[in-house]
Specification:
Distance between the termini: 16 Å
Strand content: under 5%
Largest sheet: none
Shape: globular
Helix content: over 70%
Radius of gyration: 24 Å
Number of strands: 0
Oligomer: single chain
């Protein structure tokens, strides 16, 4: 079941209504059943996988806490290693075993041998819920949190349906207390949740899905499109993936808020970043935080000298690339981000000094604006590796961009209505985000804080416009059978 489906539009209100009709002490049972039903609509047998990851990490947390309280370091470490190892093993088998075998088969083919590559189904959301489970066990083993003894609440933490498939990646210390807290139906949370859901659908359907057609056409035949249109296609994909992924996050946060549960922030205007390092503070914040806490800091972070810090950064972004997909183009995408962030780090003083020499403030408006433009261009360029099907296609697209040859728009902008909707919707999003029209999401950073002064005015005209635009875009997509799953579902 995808968020952008009729089934979800029935599933969500039914889940919310029954949730509030039930006594608080049994609500976790209903939400757990609803979450497993939600997950099983893709492939019912995969419920066994998420249950296994849940059980292994639950027992691992209990064992780690037991040994830690007895000051048995070896037992604590062994409990954590076994539990995390089994979760990582499941992730490797389902997500990376096929990739490894493809590379082995390629090497074998050079020697004239043939090796068959198994076709393994990738369970949706496996990278997200395994990372949550691994982070939980590590935190318990390190004494950063206590183990959750209630299996039902822990199982709901791993499988909570709004963020199950594409995050945000939550910490048990944050999400479990929010799940356990007794909640009453709150008008502000309902309004805020519905507005977030509307905004998420608007981003996904009215912008991302409307751009998918021309982006797909350009990447399918960049040489026909020519240099300019291919570069435009990369920029369009940057908008598409942001609206697609942040749209999912908005719907997830809104759905959770209807249930009185707050999810973590996952985006903070990433395309206004002043550097790649700044970009990763704003893009997929929960993954960046996870990699910082469980990869970068354990490797030594920035505590062991400049060279080691740079190596650690490269390793982190290698893991990030590999996390995103079992393919070389994802790995290269991650490594390039790491290399360029290291370059930014090593040249920062030099660059600031050059600006100072020509009597321009490195922190002035001109330089900051220039840095934002350059960062956006670099991010768009790197998105080419992310969007491409393989390395060959990525190099083909890049070669076309730098060929400076003309092309044809024939077959690219075939649906003018979709392009028109996408452009107007993107402009509307910018106006909403900048506050230049009378609209702002009602915010409640901490649920339960119901100070009316924190809720800004919502323009009914803007809401109606967004609803009509989403409905029109959905009809266009349905008529052409062009509806698409969220991009991050594949991870």
């Amino acid at each position: 079941m995808s968020f952008n489906s009729v089934g979800f539009l029935i599933f969500l209100p039914v889940t919310v209504i029954i949730h509030y009709l039930l006594p608080h002490k049994v609500r976790w049972v209903w939400l757990l059943l609803a979450s497993y039903f939600f997950y099983m609509t893709w492939r019912p047998e995969m419920a066994l996988l998420i249950f296994s990851v849940t059980l292994v990490s639950y027992l691992g947390g209990l064992a780690a806490e037991h040994f830690r309280k007895k000051n048995n370091r070896a037992g604590t470490v062994l409990s954590g290693v076994i539990s995390c190892g089994l979760s990582i093993g499941a992730l490797i088998f389902f997500k990376y075993f096929g990739f490894l075998m493809e590379n082995v088969a390629g090497l074998a083919a050079l020697g004239g041998k043939t090796i068959s590559v198994p076709d393994i189904v990738l369970p949706v959301g496996i990278s997200f819920y395994t990372f949550q489970a691994i982070g939980y066990v590590i935190d318990v083993a390190k004494g950063k949190s206590g183990a959750e003894h209630h299996f039902g609440y822990y199982a709901l933490f791993v499988s909570f349906f709004p963020q199950l498939v594409a995050g945000p990646i939550e910490k048990a210390t944050d999400l479990i207390p929010r799940i356990k807290a007794e909640k009453k139906l709150n008008r502000q949370n309902v309004v805020s949740g519905l507005m977030k859901i509307l905004l998420g659908f608007f981003k996904k359907i009215a912008v991302a899905d409307m751009l998918a057609g021309p982006v797909n056409a350009i990447f399918a035949d960049p040489e026909k499109a020519g240099s300019g249109l291919t570069a435009l296609g990369a920029a369009m994909f940057a908008v598409q993936i942001f609206c697609d992924f942040s749209g999912y996050t908005d719907i997830a946060k809104g759905a959770a808020e209807l249930l009185g549960i707050e999810l973590s922030k996952n985006f903070d205007k990433p395309y206004s970043a002043r550097s790649l390092n700044d970009f990763w503070r704003r893009w997929h914040i929960s993954l960046s935080g996870w990699l910082r806490d469980y990869v970068y800091i354990p490797l030594g972070g920035n505590r062991k000298g400049e060279v080691r810090t740079c190596i650690n950064l490269i390793i982190v972004f290698f893991v990030s690339g590999l996390w995103h997909g079992a393919a070389w183009h994802f790995i290269i995408w991650g490594l390039l981000h790491g290399v360029l962030i290291v370059f930014e780090r090593l040249t920062r003083k030099l660059r600031d000094g050059l600006w100072t020499r020509i009597h321009v403030s490195p922190d002035g408006r001109f330089v900051l604006t220039l840095r934002r433009i350059v960062t956006f261009i670099v991010v768009c360029f790197l998105w080419i590796f992310f969007r491409a099907e393989n390395m060959s296609e990525a190099f083909k697209v890049i070669g076309t961009v730098f060929s400076f040859k003309g092309g044809s728009a024939a077959g690219i902008f075939t649906d003018t209505a979709s392009i028109f909707i996408a452009i107007l919707s993107a402009v509307l999003l910018v106006l909403i985000d900048s506050g230049r029209i009378g609209y702002s999401l009602p915010v409640s950073e901490g649920l339960g804080q119901t100070n009316a002064s924190r809720v800004k005015h919502v323009s009914p005209g803007v809401i109606i416009l967004m609803i009509w635009t989403v409905a029109l875009a959905w009809l266009l997509l349905s008529s052409s059978a062009a509806t698409s799953a969220f991009i991050y579902f594949q991870f």
